[in-house]
Every structure is written in structure tokens, then in C-alpha cells.
Design brief:
Mean pLDDT of chain B: 85
Distance between the termini of chain A: 59 Å
Largest sheet of chain A: 5 strands, mixed
Low-confidence stretches of chain A: 111-193, 257-261
Distance between the termini of chain B: 47 Å
Number of helices of chain A: 12
Oligomer: heterodimer
Helix content of chain B: 55-70%
Structural class of chain A: alpha+beta
Strand order of the largest sheet of chain A: 2-3-5-1-4
Low-confidence stretches of chain B: 191-204
Largest interface: A-B, 51 and 59 residues
Order of helices and strands of chain A: HHHHHHHHHHHEEEHEE
Helix content of chain A: 55-70%
């Protein structure tokens, strides 16, 4: 007995999609086929059982996890957009050239220190200025979610470093006015080929856009991986972000605030 | 606020509106993922992934299907991808609609499929849950959407990007495959040594 087509009809009947003609055909077949009658009854039983399967309550953390991820995405793209605006205001071409020049010649660190001294009261030692700077960066990079919940630009700009120091914009003003461009000074500050600490990341954490130049402008290390040099403060802030966000990373050594405050740290992007 | 309004707002970047959409739909997305993967952790991860994909792809949702259908599609895809990666594809129970009927020439249906006591109903439900996990991903997917989520053939077709005729025959095969699995399960309670109802009751 060729029951094939009737088996599909039995299933379709469960879903109420049989035409009247098909219904009649099926009834006729079932009257003569005990085996198909069995199948029909069993499939009905399975359907009833399946509709009796309980809907499992959703773990309450799902919504939170989703919205955290959504929020992190949004914040990343918005600060990047603002970063783009700030840069175009500053003069994109000049900035780009400077960025490349700065890290190559080691002016990044010196420029940063100058700017720091200028922007604070000019008081205190270098290390205290730099720690103030670190706070500013920490706030910029890791904004409390309350600020973003408004969904307005105003809330975001409070933490934006347009009027703060971005390490890769810093040297811009200083290079022209202060005589720190010489190789000698760069070397004196401790800018040698081997950086004090290297942080190797799989990817940049959220908030890194406020601290680092865009990856397109980074240099390349001996292994051909993108790398850029940063101050100790930025390095530490970055490390903290990486830890908080659970990003795979490795560090060669931990920069000490006192001993290596003048040394340069390096961030490497090792994909995969 | 209607769902349409929530979607428009979320698309414009309103996170609270999206959170509302998440709350409205998380039960169905999570349950689909749970029935597809069989475990809560994976279901949670896949549900999260589904909603994140929804957030990112909101501008691609045109409104020509229900929002829930679109979410089902995202969830289904995520689950199938996950199952393929995990290689948990069950041994595909081969079902040919031609000779299936020949297998059991009997006019006595297996009474375990028609439970009468609450205990028997529980046993059958548990057997069905186990059986679902043994189905191929494609059979499981289509059966879960139809029987547990109540989607019509048309909605399933939209969700999985299939013709309705394909949906119809795939559902039929899935049901027969499940039946076959349960029949070979032997004792529905899962304990191969216990045969009698009395034993089952003692265990229950």
C-alpha cells in the first residue's frame, strides 16, 4: 500500500490546511488502512504533548546583558563620531602628519608633559600632573552609563576630551613653540627603541577611541603588527578597560608610576 | 506605544524603546533557543546574540513580516549556526514518506502516545523533549516553530525563507521522525530496565 502521500496529508490535517477534496481522500484511505490510522492517532498524541511543553521563564539577566551590549555598541560609535568632528576642527592634515611624526620621534611623551604642566596650575611635580591627566582620561574613556541614558549629545560632551588632552593631539601646539624637537631631547627623555611596557591586544576596548589615535595611523612593529606608543597613564587606563571588558591581552611588564613615568609604553594590536 | 512606534524609535537610536521590544519578545526568542539547543546557557547566549543582531540590523527590518517573525528568523539562524559549529547534528533519522506506513502494520496505536494519567502525560512530554533533541536541526527547527511557537506554514516559510510546500512536507517528515525516535525509545520513562507502570510510579 502506497501510504506516502497520505502520511503527509495526516500531518497537514493536524495543521488544518487540507482542502475538502483532500480531506475526503484521506478519510477514504484511513477507513481501509489500519497502519495509517495508527500513525494518525500517534501524531495527534505527539502534537498534544508538544503543545503541553512548558514555556520556560526567561532568566532575568538576559535583558540586562542585551542592553549592556547595545549600550556599549552605541557609545563606541558615538564617541568615534565626535572624535572625528574634533579632529576635523583641529586640522586633519596637520594632525595626521604630527601623529606619525610624534610617535616616531618620541615627542609624544614630552609634548604630553608640557601640555599637562600648562593645563594644570603649573604646580606640582610631573607625576602629579600626569595622575590628574589619568583621571581625565579615565572619565572620558569610561563614562558612567547614567550620562548616556539621556540619549542626548549634551550628556556625552561633558566627558569628551575636546578641551582635554588627547595624547596624539598634544604635541601639535608645542612642537612649533618649544625647542623640544631635537633628537637629543627625545632621547634624553628615554625614548629608545625598546619601550618600557608592551600591551598586546586582540582588539581595542570600548573607550579606547578617546585615548588612542585611529588604528589607520599607527605604525607597525617588527612583526608587522599595528602599534602605537602611549603615556603610562593611557597605558594603565587602557589596561584597566581591557580587564573590565574581558578582552584577551598580554603585557610584558607593568609600568611603575615613579620609576618609569618618563618611559614610553606601547600598544600592539595582534589580530586573531 | 504600539510596536510599530517602538521599532521606529529604536531604529532612530532610542535604547529604552529597544529594551521594551526585548522585554516583549525575550520569552519567545529564549524558548526557541532553548528547544533548539537543549541547554540554558547556550540559549541565553544565543538569545543575547539574536537581540544584538536585531539592534544592529533594525534598519533592515522593513515591516513586511511581523517583528516577531523577523526575530524568529534571526534566532533560528543563530541556533542553526551554533549547532553546526558544535556539530550536534543528530544522526539524521531517515524518513521516506513512501514506506513509512509499511513499518507497522497494525491497527493498534501505541497507547503511550495517548496518555491518560497526569504521570503518563509527564512521561510523554519528557520523552518528546528528549526526542526533539535527537532530531536533525532542520526537523527540530520546523517542528518547534510549528508546535511550540504556533507559527503558520506561511510564517514559518517567511522565517526560514522556504516555500510553503517545502514547509508542509518538512513538518510531516519531522513529525514522523519524532514518532520513529519515540517508538525506538522503548520505555518512555528512559529507564531501560523498568517496564511496569508500577515501577514508573515508584520512580515518579
Amino acid at each position: 500500500m502506497a501510504c506516502g502521500p497520505f502520511l503527509e496529508m495526516i500531518s497537514a490535517r493536524l495543521d488544518g490546511v487540507l482542502s475538502e477534496q483532500e480531506q475526503a481522500q484521506l478519510e477514504e484511505h484511513l477507513a481501509q488502512c489500519p497502519s495509517c490510522r495508527s500513525v494518525a492517532r500517534e501524531l495527534e498524541g505527539l502534537r498534544a504533548a508538544m503543545s503541553g511543553l512548558e514555556e520556560v521563564p526567561v532568566p532575568p539577566e538576559l535583558e540586562e546583558r542585551v542592553m549592556n551590549a547595545v549600550h556599549a555598541e552605541r557609545r563606541g560609535s558615538r564617541t568615534w563620531n565626535r572624535r572625528r568632528m574634533a579632529r576635523s576642527l583641529a586640522g586633519l592634515a596637520a594632525c595626521a602628519v604630527l601623529c606619525v611624526g610624534i610617535y616616531q620621534s618620541g615627542l609624544l611623551q614630552s609634548g604630553l608633559m608640557d601640555q599637562t604642566a600648562r593645563n594644570t596650575d603649573g604646580s606640582g611635580t610631573v607625576s602629579s600632573d600626569q595622575s590628574l591627566n589619568a583621571t581625565q582620561f579615565t572619565n572620558a574613556g569610561v563614562e558612567p552609563s547614567a550620562a548616556d541614558a539621556d540619549g542626548t549629545d549634551a550628556a556625552d560632551s561633558a566627558g569628551e576630551p575636546e578641551d582635554q588632552i588627547a595624547p596624539y593631539q598634544t604635541g601639535e601646539e608645542k612642537v612649533g613653540t618649544k625647542p623640544r624637537e631635537t633628537e637629543g631631547d627625545g632621547l634624553a627623555i628615554g625614548q629608545m627603541a625598546v619601550p618600557a611596557s608592551v600591551l598586546t591586544l586582540e582588539r581595542l576596548p570600548e573607550g579606547a577611541e578617546d585615548l588612542l589615535p585611529p588604528v589607520e595611523e599607527w605604525g607597525v612593529n617588527d612583526q608587522g603588527q599595528p602599534c602605537c606608543e602611549v603615556s603610562v597613564q593611557v597605558f594603565q587606563t587602557l589596561s584597566q578597560l581591557v580587564q573590565e571588558q574581558g578582552i584577551t591581552a598580554s603585557m610584558t611588564s607593568v609600568p611603575e608610576e615613579n620609576g618609569q613615568s618618563e618611559a614610553l609604553c606601547q600598544v600592539v594590536l595582534a589580530a586573531g | 506605544m504600539t510596536e510599530r512606534e517602538l521599532i521606529d524609535r529604536a531604529r532612530a537610536g532610542d535604547e529604552e524603546a529597544f529594551a521594551s521590544l526585548v522585554r516583549d519578545n525575550e520569552k519567545r526568542v529564549y524558548n526557541l533557543a532553548l528547544r533548539m539547543t537543549g541547554n540554558q546557557e547556550d540559549a541565553l547566549d544565543l538569545a543575547q546574540e539574536t537581540f544584538l543582531n536585531a539592534w544592529r540590523g533594525l534598519r533592515f527590518f522593513k515591516g513586511d513580516s511581523a517583528f516577531s517573525t523577523w526575530l524568529y528568523r534571526l534566532a533560528s539562524n543563530a541556533c542553526i549556526d551554533h549547532l553546526r559549529r558544535e556539530r550536534r547534528q543528530a544522526q539524521a533519522v531517515s524518513i521516506s514518506l513512501d514506506d513509512e506506513g509499511e513499518e507497522r502494520q497494525t491497527d493498534i496505536p501505541d497507547e503511550r502516545f495517548c496518555p491518560e494519567t497526569e504521570l503518563e502525560r509527564q512521561e510523554l512530554r519528557r520523552a518528546v523533549e528528549r526526542g526533539l533533541e535527537q532530531l536533525s536541526a532542520e526537523h527540530r527547527q520546523v517542528l518547534v516553530l510549528r508546535e511550540i511557537h504556533g507559527l503558520s506554514y506561511q510564517e514559518i516559510g517567511q522565517t526560514l525563507d522556504l516555500e510553503e510546500g517545502t514547509v508542509k512536507s518538512r513538518i510531516a517528515r519531522a513529525r514522523l521522525a519524532l514518532r520513529k525516535i519515540l517508538l525506538s525509545d522503548g520505555n518512555f520513562s528512559g529507564d531501560p530496565t523498568s517496564n511496569s507502570v508500577k515501577d514508573k510510579r515508584r520512580k515518579g
